[in-house]
Design goal:
The protein is mainly alpha-helical. 76% of the residues lie in helices and 0% in strands.
Length: 454
């Protein structure tokens, strides 16, 4: 059988739009809700957005197309896909590291992502219980410190978050992943628009829009350009196997180019809507917009606790965060689950159970790094910080570089053309140039910046 006629043993998406929802869900995560709006506000507003969109077009979309085409051509888990493609291209076995690295990175990221997802789950209930009513900054900071300082609390919420994730994944492509994203993604957009609607009533919507969208080119420095480039890469969940495994379920007649553009636009749209929802609330309560991750669990609860309808909208906000976390988490573990099924011939339920338990156990290290292991340092980093550094700063950029080089240089033009289905020769040549030259160099610069060399 011709390799291009292969079908995934795990099934396929029922439609192009389902794949778009799933891949957008994989890309949209907690970082979209706080990091992108914060970076935008601090780096020149719409001037930064313009640079970011250029980076998405020149770096993110070509790389996403490359990762999807690898997945669809191999029709398997990233590890086995790379084995098949290495044989097809008659190149060295070392290129299989793309599949191994992506699968391992997904598991490592989910181990700590689940802990943070557990925080959002806990804060839904804290908000519903009125914990933050009339709260001060000191109170919310103390509440958060007490919460993460309790290994028992984090253990419970991490377990609940992980359990629900694995139940979804155990349902399979159409029975689990597809049903989940068909419910979760519209819910996410609905909640975002609801929060934006509320922000319009604060009286500070104009100030929020000014913070986000007023172009200030004087703030565009070399550092902010690197931030835009890094965000364009990381925001689309590239290099961690999730887009590759989702690509293996894509129907053959689906346009990879068109869907990649739509996914990138949706991902950026979510991040901008999040900023439109968050910053008017922050300004209305005279709070600090540049407080990074603390914005979510310490700054915003003060705002919600001191405004009309704060219990309702605070709870809705943390539900929104939880939805964003779940759509990412189910994609992070999927490569490992499918690898166990293909390698050992076990059922999807067993594969989900085994991979879920292993990832959950690894997550205990992240839990303890906030309390029991707080003083335990590896190269000056806590266990959580070390995992985050290895995955975000090393594994993902390296994975992105290798994907670009493999798709751009080692796969034949005939095969990449047949997968991408780009009929316009000029557009195909542009993609090939971007993925061969621009993307590897840009991601290498991101890598050097991430590890502190630049």
């Amino acid at each position: 059988m011709n390799i291009s006629d292969r079908q995934s043993m795990h099934g396929q998406w029922s439609s192009r739009w389902t794949f778009i929802l799933a891949a957008t869900g994989a890309a949209v995560g907690l970082g979209n809700i706080w990091k992108f709006p914060y970076l935008t506000g601090q780096n020149g507003g719409s001037a930064f957005v313009l640079i970011y969109i250029i980076c998405v077009a020149a770096l993110g979309i070509p790389l996403m197309m490359a990762e999807i085409l690898l997945g669809r051509r191999g029709r398997s888990t990233p590890i086995h896909t790379m084995k098949v493609l290495v044989e097809e291209t008659n190149t060295t076995q070392w290129w299989q590291i793309i599949g191994w690295s992506g699968t391992l990175a997904g598991m490592l990221i989910l181990s700590y992502y689940s802990v943070i997802g557990g925080w959002t789950l806990a804060y839904i209930f804290k908000s519903l219980a009125g914990t933050f009513s009339g709260a001060t900054g000191e109170f919310t900071a103390s509440t958060f410190a007490t919460f993460v300082g309790s290994a028992t609390s984090l253990f419970f919420w991490h377990t609940v978050f992980m359990l629900i994730t694995m139940v979804i994944v155990a349902g399979g492509v159409q029975g689990g992943l597809e049903k989940a994203v068909q419910f979760l993604m519209p819910t996410l957009f609905f909640l975002l628009l609801l929060m934006v609607g509320y922000s319009m009533s604060t009286g500070y919507f104009g100030k929020g829009m000014e913070f986000l969208f007023t172009p200030d080119f004087s703030k565009l420095t070399g550092s902010s350009m690197l931030s835009a480039m890094g965000q364009a890469f990381f925001s689309l969940s590239l290099g961690m196997g999730t887009i590759m495994i989702y690509g293996s379920y894509v129907p053959k007649d689906t346009s990879i180019a068109n869907t990649s553009i739509i996914i990138a636009m949706a991902d950026t749209g979510v991040a901008l809507l999040a900023g439109m929802a968050i910053f008017p609330i922050v300004f209305a309560n005279n709070l600090e917009p540049g407080s990074g991750p603390g914005l979510i669990f310490q700054t915003l609860p003060v705002a919600f606790g001191n405004m009309t309808g704060g219990i309702i909208f605070g709870s809705l906000f943390f539900i929104l965060l939880l939805v964003a976390a779940w759509t990412s988490s189910i994609s992070l573990i999927e490569p490992l689950v499918t690898w166990l099924i293909e390698t050992f011939g076990i059922s999807r339920i067993k594969a989900s159970l085994y991979s879920g338990i292993a990832t959950w156990m690894l997550g205990l290290g992240t839990i303890w790094s906030f309390n029991l292991w707080a003083d335990l340092k590896f190269f000056g980093l806590t266990f959580f910080d070390l995992l985050d550094f290895i995955t975000s700063n090393l594994m993902l950029p390296l994975g992105g570089i290798l994907i670009a080089l493999f798709a751009g240089w080692l796969m034949s033009s005939e095969n990449t053309k047949s997968e991408l289905r780009i009929t316009n020769p000029a557009l195909y040549t542009a993609w090939q140039a971007l993925v061969r030259y621009i993307a590897p160099i840009a991601v290498f610069i991101v890598l050097l910046n991430a590890i502190g060399i630049l």
